[in-house]
Structure formats: structure tokens, C-alpha cells
Specification:
β9 (209-214) and β10 (217-222) form a beta hairpin. It contains twelve helices and ten strands. It is an alpha/beta fold and 289 residues long. It folds into two domains: 3-223, Rossmann fold (3-Layer(aba) Sandwich); 242-287, no CATH class. α3 packs parallel to α5. Helix content is 42%, strand content 21%. The protein binds adenosine-5'-triphosphate and magnesium ion.
Length: 289
Amino acid sequence: MESIIGLEDVHFLYPDGTPALKGITLRIPHQGKTALLGPNGAGKTTLLLHLNGIYRPTRGAVYFEGSHIRHSRSEINLLRRQIGIVFQDPELQLLGGTVYQDLSFGPANLNLNNDLIHKRVKKALELSNLIHLADRPVHSLSYGQKKRVAIAGVLAMEPRVIALDEPTASLDPCAAVELMELMDSLNAQGTTVIISTHDVDLAVAWAKQLVIMEDGRIQLTGTAEQIYKQKLEAHRLNLNVPFVVEVYWHLIETGLATGIEKMPRNRKELLNLIHKPGQTEHLSKAKGI
Ligand SMILES: Nc1ncnc2c1ncn2[C@@H]1O[C@H](COP(=O)(O)OP(=O)(O)OP(=O)(O)O)[C@@H](O)[C@H]1O
Ligand SMILES: [Mg+2]
């Protein structure tokens, strides 16, 4: 598995002495879909802010395409063009003016000509379904709308890696689905996507790699199947369990599934598992029909 970003024994202390990362070693797969999970204070945001040089490790190293990030100004400028971070709080990200103006600041900083800036902004507005808000002042938008503008602002930079801190937390269900579909289509075109989330159902349905953090450390990494295949182990580690996995375990325990099927990662796969032809026989027997 080729990685685009690597962290090697990264430790980070905040200026007040709080240890937020305590030895993180992690590979972010190139063109992958990675989700960071973990309770409040686990270190997810702190880790994301190391990816494009906003924070510098107190100890350890971060690598981009194999090169050690050394935090010179030119290196950081280059890095930020390639790795876009969407903060949890859009207020920290938005610069002001109208939505259109806000989105053009980033590309203008790349010294693109006006025509190219316009093309980038238009594309980001279209991808994010924000055309109708283009002329609104950003300060007048709802929180969820601001979040979508902040995401569009990162899209307008056309980065190779997009890291989003709790991207769906303040979005309505429809906007959340649209956002993850948009991330999937960018991913299919080669963008590496990383999210942090508390939504374990979303993480399991969406990510190819899960990274479970706790108290500044990585507790576990792997695919959803690797992490949730063993119920006892998941319970021992006190993992938050997605709904589809709970039902899957239940189907196995009640004999309605054999356990050799692929673990479902979303509702559709779960329903397919229940409805697949071989299963009807089991179901009939179990129901005594
Ligand atoms: N500016 C700061 N100064 C001091 N300590 C901080 C600061 N920001 C975060 N921390 C501490 O660093 C640790 C990791 O915090 P972080 O925000 O990375 O966690 P998180 O996993 O993103 O949590 P959440 O799910 O609540 O967003 C916590 O102990 C937190 O209290
Ligand atoms: Mg956080």
C-alpha cells in the first residue's frame, strides 16, 4: 500500500503542557479514504493539524510523499497547496465578503489569472451546490451553509489531499450524504480523503481505512471488517459499534447468518445479507414456517 503522508512517532504538547499526541505512527494511503475515530480529546483534531504543517511535532516526524516536512516557509506554502484542511469550525476558515469573494481568495493567492480563478470558484460552487448563495455575504449564512462554503473554499484550491474535521457534524442529513458522495467522486479522480468523525456508522460505511484513537495514541487501524469481525475483541477494546455490525453479530448468533459472509458496511449490504436466497431457508426454519 503506497502512502502519501506518514507520521513517525509523533508527539505533541500544547504550549500549556497538555500532551495531545503520544507517539503516533501512521500511514495515510495514497488516494485512500481514511476515517479517524475516537472520543472527545483523543487527539483527532491535533493529528489533522499536523498533516499540512499547522502544528509541528514536539518529537517525531511527518512525511509527505516520503519527504520529511521541515517547516521552512517555502515548504509549508507548497504543502498547503497540496493538502487542504477543513476545520471543524467554519468561522475559523472563512475570510468574509460574499461567498464568491471568499472562495476566490485561495486561488487568487496561487497567482492564477482572473479567468482561471473564476473557473475554479464556479466549479467549487457547482460541486458544493452553492451557486444560489454565491452573492450572499458569508456572515449572513447559517452555520451549516458556512460549513459548506468552507469546504468549497478548500475544493477551489484543488488539493491532492483533503482532510476534514467532523465534516458532517453540522450538516443536514441530505447535505451530509451529498458531501460524502462528493468526497467519493473526488477520491475516484485521485484525491486522498481523510475525515475525523464521531459517526461510527458513517466511518464504517465510507472509509477504506479506520484509525481508532484514544488518549493521544492509536488504538487500532484496519478495515472495518478487520476491526469489527470479532465481537469479543471489539467489546474488550470498548469500541463504539456501528448499527449494521450489531445486527450482523445478532444474525450470526441467532443462526440467521453463517458468519462467513462479508461483513455488511451499510444498510444496503445488511439488507442484501438478510434477503439473499440461501438465507430465506434459514429464516423460514428460524421462524418455524
Ligand atoms: N489549544 C489547546 N491548548 C491546550 N490543550 C489543548 C488545546 N487543544 C486541544 N487540547 C487538548 O489536546 C487533547 C486532544 O485534543 P483534540 O482537540 O485533538 O481532540 P479530538 O479528538 O479532536 O476531540 P473532539 O472529539 O472533542 O473534537 C485534549 O486533551 C485537549 O484537551
Ligand atoms: Mg476535534
